[in-house]
Amino acid sequence: QYEMGRGKNGHLLIGDAEEAVDKILQLQELFGLTRFAAHMDVGGPAHKDLMMGIEIYGTKIAPKVRAALS
């Protein structure tokens, strides 16, 4: 189930920034999304790792998604 979820057609955004951008854009095209909310596991990773994930989302993923959709 985990492997299917993280695969190309899965529901999980796990991987590098480019994989996340590609999957978000694929989901947007498939479902016609106008909004996207990400949930990050706050109980598992160390605080510094969680903060790094938030930074990557804000500096690498979100700008590329916005640019692709504009």
Descriptors:
70 residues; 3 helices; 0% strand
Q: What does this protein look like?
A:
This protein is an all-alpha fold. Helix content is 61%, strand content 0%. α2 packs across α3 (47-69). The longest helix is centred in the C-terminal third of the chain and has 23 residues, at 47-69. It is globular. The mean pLDDT is 90.
A few lines on this structure:
The protein is an all-alpha fold. It has helices spanning 2-6, 17-31, 47-69.
Silhouette:
globular
C-alpha termini separation: 34 Å
Helix vs. strand class: mainly alpha
Percent of residues in helical segments? 55-70%
What's the alpha carbon Rg, rounded to whole Å?
Answer: 12 Å
Q: How are the SSEs ordered, and which strands pair?
A:
Elements: H1 2-6, H2 17-31, H3 47-69
